[in-house]
Amino acid sequence: MYLAQGIGLLIGSVFWGVGSDVWGRRWSFNFTLLITGTFAIAAAGSSDYNSLCMFMALWSIGVGGNFPVGSAVLLECFPASHQYLLTVLSIWWAVGQLIGALVVWPLISHYSCTITMDTCVSSLNKGWRYYLFTMGGVTLVMWILRFFVFNLQESPKFLMSRGRDEEAVAAVHRVAAFNGKISNLTIEHLEEAEKLFGSVQGQAHTSRVKLLFGTRKLAYSTCILVALWALIGLAFPLYNDVVTYRNDIISSAISVPGGLMAGYLVELPILGRRGTLSIFTALTGVFVFASAFSGTSNSYLAWDCVCRYTSTVMYGVLYALTPELFPTRTRGTGSAIVAAANHICGLMTLIIRIYIFYTFQMWLPEGIFVIAGLTALLLPFEPRGKASL
Predict the structure, then answer these.
(1) Taking a C-beta distance cutoff of 8 angstroms, is the pair 326, 161 a contact?
(2) Cα 389 to Cα 380: distance, rounded to the nearest angstrom
(3) Which residue did the predictor score with more confidence, 174 or 200?
(4) Which residue in 54, 203, 356, 373 is deepest, having the highest Cβ count within 10 Å?
(5) What is the mean pLDDT of residues 74-83?
(6) C-alpha distance from residue 170 to each of 79, 205, 237, 239 (Å)
(7) 29: helix, strand or coil
(8) pTM of the full predicted structure?
(9) What are the residues whose beta carbons fall under 8 Å from the beta carbon of 57, sequence distance 6 or more?
(10) 79: left (phi > 0), else alpha (psi -120 to 50), else beta?
């Protein structure tokens, strides 16, 4: 199941990320939820283990596209002064984990076979099906709201990167009208900016991957980001965060304010994005190490709560920093590459768990987190206070 999910996430991140740079953010943003919800409900009706794994892989294709597409859509709609809000939005990941834990606990507890049963028949083991029906249904409702109620405009930055300036101006005017404002932007303004700063049309036939390595500094930044995502993708699955439903709810609730803290810290001149990411990635490794020596369930819960909190800050900054460092024309492709590195390394943990002794495996994630924290300091760009390109 973990393998099926990992393969689906890998395919989804690459397909939707690259696709958002080809046909635009709008359609990719809308259809990832439809795919996730549809196949989650289909998985609830699985007749056997193989079909369940297949549907898990298919719904994961939708889930995998949410990061590269969603982060690009939001970043390209925020003015430079409010780009930090992309970090704050990580609060909703923690809220989602909390809601998921609150839903799964009663369903699995009341509609599943117990360990005291000699045999487990399907009619007594439907908790997981009810859970998938519920979460798949909620996802489809969110898709309906996203597609039919929330009239998302195509990203003006994306349109300009494709030379579609008239459509970009029209999109800005529609957004302004929706908010009761009047925009003075005209096609002449864009033409004047093109004369001053040059046009992107010269890059029209250049490979998007090649553009990510267009200059020495940009190539270095891309490589560091790939290394960061790969290290974190390797470390997190190795951390055996096995908790009860009760403890999962508690630790998820405590991690919710992490997004707010991340949004505050990334705007501090002394820290910025790089400093916050480095500190909280390394702290996650330190607290994972401490949790390995927990002697009681309550002490493990305490350390797990701290780990969840620091990792929420870490992921919030990482998910916001990454698209900020990629140009608009290659933002989806760049995000797809780093997400692919993350998922590939996550799949590698299956091999590590088999062939590396358990004692060494317990020490491995802590060290990788600390190395990732130090790697974050090597990023050549600090986006704080600057508009994304």
Answers:
(1) no
(2) 16
(3) 174
(4) 373
(5) 81
(6) 18, 25, 45, 49
(7) helix
(8) 0.89
(9) 4, 5, 7, 8, 11
(10) beta
